[in-house]
Amino acid sequence: MIKTFLAGVAAVAMFGAMHAPVYAQDCENSATIGSGGSAAAGGTSASTLGTGAACDTGDGTTASIGSGGSAATTDGKAMSRTKTNVNPNQLKSQSKAQAMDKGTFSKSMTKTRIKDGELQSRTKTMSHVPGQKPVKDNILVESELPGQ
Q1: What are phi and psi of 12, to 5 degrees?
Q2: 37 vs 46: CA distance, rounded Å
Q3: Strands 118-128 and 90-101
Q4: Residue span of the structural domain in which 55 resides
Q5: What Rg, from alpha-carbon coordinates, does the chain have?
Q6: What confidence tier does 88 reach under pLDDT thresholds 50, 70, 90?
Q7: Rounded CA separation 62/104 (Å)
Q8: Per-residue three-class SS string for the chain
Q9: Are 88 and 62 in contact (CB under 8 A)?
Q10: Which of these, 2, 10, 32, 79, has the minimum number of CB atoms within 10 Å of its CB?
Q11: pLDDT of 39-76, one tens digit each?
Q12: Spatial contact of 110 and 69, defined as CB atoms under 8 Å apart
């Protein structure tokens, strides 16, 4: 029996001109960002991802952010969660996913941030089987809105 906990794209937020949509052709400058990763060991797996975009229209900046994750195990516990913070200065989103089966586990975490025209997304993954060395990975992606 496979136990799965899925949080899909659990959070999406926007700030800027909320009364009218902004189309790509309206952007004087734009930037996108994204990272994601998966870990698996034994009968466990965990994955997370985060994406973001910013657009400078000349009248201001709009941005969007999204994040999500999932975890699964054949016999054990799986969890995933996503938290997004929105304020006038920045967008931040974090997704975590973890699956455990006795001493074997897999976990993944992605943090994405957009602040002052700077975009950053970091994903960390780790899997471990008892008696073996843990397998780790760390991905950092950075971008900047041109003209900032």
Answers
A1: -140, 135
A2: 8
A3: unpaired
A4: 3-144
A5: 18
A6: confident
A7: 43
A8: CCEEEEEEEEEEEEECCCCCCCCHHHCCEEEEEEEEEEEEECCEEEEEEEEEEEEECCCCEEEEEEEEEEEEECCCEEEEEEEEEEECCEEEEEEEEEEEECCEEEEEEEEEEEECCEEEEEEEEEEECCCCCCEEEEEEEEEECCCC
A9: no
A10: 2
A11: 999 999 999 999 999 999 888 889 999 999 999 999 99
A12: yes
The one-letter amino acid at 104: T
Which amino acid makes up residue 83? Answer: K
Q: Report the amino acid identity of residue 102.
A: K
Strand partners, 145: none
Look up residue 39 and give its two tokens: 């870990």
Sequence-distant (6+) residues with CB within 8 A of 77 are: 3, 99, 100, 101
